[in-house]
Amino acid sequence: MTVASEVTLHRPVKTARAEGPWSVEAVQALLDMPFMDLVHQAQTVHRQHFPEGDIELATLLSVKTGGCPENCGYCPQSAEFDTGVKAQKLMEVDEVLRAAKAAQDAGATRFCMGAAWRAPKDRDVEKVAALIEAVKGLGMQTCATLGMLEPHQAQALKSAGLDYYNHNLDTAPEYYTDVVQTRQYQDRLDTLAAVRAAGINVCCGGIVGMGEQPVHRAGLIAQLANLDPYPESVPINSLVRVPGTPLADSEPVDPFEFVRMIAVARITMPKARVRLSAGRQQLGEAVQALCFMAGANSIFYGDKLLVTGNPDVEADVQLLRKLGLQARRTQQVEEPCA
Ligand code: SF4
After folding, report:
1. How many domains, in total, are found in the chain?
2. Alpha-carbon Rg of the chain, whole angstroms?
3. Which of 153-157, 192-196, 281-285, 321-325 has the lowest mean pLDDT?
């Protein structure tokens, strides 16, 4: 008896959905594929859309830290949780500029500025606009994540030169209230619509490992892929379990499940930069390599992600070198996803 007669080594690769929006079931079917088939399919899609195969390096700086009135269960910056994060006011332009220049010198092409607000006031937007103008002046791509925006605020950020706005959906709508109670899923969608209407590229993804069921992971991907157009950047985060947050005791994510999420994001949003985001430090080099194989082509770069840890720059440079991967060099903003 041969081994192959006992174990099915190669099952037929499932094709993507028929035309139309992604159903949760179709996404679930992808997530459930045999691992090797899924990664192979994702890599095939990846090579079609990113033949140069480079990795985007994005640096994220917390420009206003802590004291946030929202209660996102994963976030150490919420004022509701005792996490030891000290609230700090908005940074000055020259401080931010120094950090952006250092990130650029280290090879980053995108600089993301995060502020822990529920929703900025107009005077906050004015101050952030000055930060965006300064960073833009270095020739870097700019990104901001400031909470919920009104349409006129999105317009003001666009006028300042903002290239991307990050606003994550976090999880599926059905699981959202288990994670956040201070706002609705529709609030997120409204801000994303305001960002799109202002002509800013969208950066939007989610987090795995928050106690969600597989159907919620499929639901998150379906939501993202069905945004019209889907986001240009899709950060996939693995929960960083910070003591003091309500999700601190969540079960860690199986690394293969995480790779599956990357692969399915790549297949359903073929032209997006899929970003290997928070939680990368826990993944180790081998799992990160699998994520790149599955279509991740962007990482957060720098030793800190807002207030949690990230692999250090030298470790990332070494990893890319070991894998023969090139960092993206151009500062040009990619075409919007169609
Ligand atoms: S994730 Fe953002 S909105 Fe939520 S608590 Fe943290 S800083 Fe506030």
Report:
1. 1
2. 19
3. 281-285
Q: How far is CA 75 from CA 12, 67, 246, 309, 335, in A?
A: 41, 11, 9, 13, 32
pLDDT of residue 15: 46
- With cut-offs at 50, 70 and 90, classify the pLDDT of residue 12: very low
The two tokens of residue 260 are: 């599956």
Question: What is residue 84's DSSP assignment?
Answer: -
Active site residues: 68, 72, 75, 112, 143, 203, 275
Cα–Cα–Cα angle for 300, 78, 132, rounded to 5 degrees? 45
Burial 111-122 (b: 16+ CB within 10 A, else e): bbbbbbbebbee
Q: How confident is the model at residue 18 (pLDDT cuts 50, 70, 90)?
A: low
Preceding omega of 229 cis (within 30 degrees of 0): yes
Q: At 17, is the secondary structure helix, strand, or coil?
A: coil
Percent of the chain with pLDDT over 70: 89
Alpha-carbon distance 270 to 248, whole Å? 33
Mean pLDDT of 108-117: 94
286 and 266 Cβ atoms separated by less than 8 Å = no
Domain for residue 153, yes or no? yes
Is any atom of ligand 1 closer than 6 Å to the C-beta of 170? no
CB atoms within 10 A of CB 252: 12
Query: How far is the centre of ligand 1, averaged over its atoms, from the C-alpha of 60 (Å)?
Result: 15
At 277 the pLDDT is: 86
Tell me if 247 CB under 6 Å of ligand 1: no
**Cβ–Cβ < 8 Å for 87, 65:** yes
Mean pLDDT of 35-63: 94
User: Domain residues for 55?
Assistant: 20-323
- Whether 4 is covered by a domain: the verdict is no
Within a domain: 8 = no
